[in-house]
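Standup notes
- DV: blocked on the single-chain target, sequence here:
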Amino acid sequence: MKRLLDAGVAVTLHSDDPAYFGGYMNANWEASFDALPLDAADAHKLARNSFEAAFLPDVQKAEFLAEVDHFWSATPASPPATANVTTTT
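- DV (later): unblocked, structure below
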């Protein structure tokens, strides 16, 4: 996953039927960060990727991306918000 992120692939983390398989979102993120050499910059990319890939109207997608970037810019030791935000119309 780390190599894919570093290569610019739009990797996302999701849960699949958590009630049946126990894979809730927070557990999936924790397991990924425990098992792989992921850092805060990767978390920022993963969070952004999830909204960029979401089936949402562009306006709503942009609002969520702005919230993600605001959170990361306000978090100590976080990477700066990306300036190359792209959305499709």
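- Follow-up: Residues 18 and 68 are 24 Å apart (CA to CA).
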